[in-house]
Amino acid sequence: MTRYLESLQRRSSVHNVEVTEGGFVIVRKAPDCRAFDGLAREVIKSAGRDYVALPFTDGAVGYARIIILLFN
Questions:
Q1: pLDDT tens digit sequence for 6-48
Q2: Pair 25, 68: CB distance under 8 Å
């Protein structure tokens, strides 16, 4: 696993992490968090070689969670 993916698996003030079979889920902590939206955009942009990112919106204008599926 790359350092970038390892860093995503660390919880922060912005997000929690739920480990799943085949990957993990990054979950926004705060109800209105621009920092999480920035993280989500970065994760989505960086997807491709090592993982797939499946973002879920909050029903408004931001992101609520991102499912990360890892390539073996």
A1: 999 999 989 999 999 999 999 999 876 899 999 999 999 999 9
A2: yes
Query: Which long-range contacts does 15-19 make (Cβ < 8 Å, 24+ apart)?
Result: 15/39
Q: How far apart are CA 57 and CA 2, in angstroms?
A: 26
Burial of 66 (0-12, 13-18, 19+ CB in 10 A): buried
Strand order of the sheet with strand 51-57?
15-20, 23-28, 63-70, 51-57
- Looking at residue 1, its pLDDT comes to 64
Distance CA 21, CA 55 (A): 17
Residues 12-46 as b/e (b if ≥16 CB within 10 A, e otherwise) read eebbeeeeeeebbbbbbeeeebeebbebbeebeee
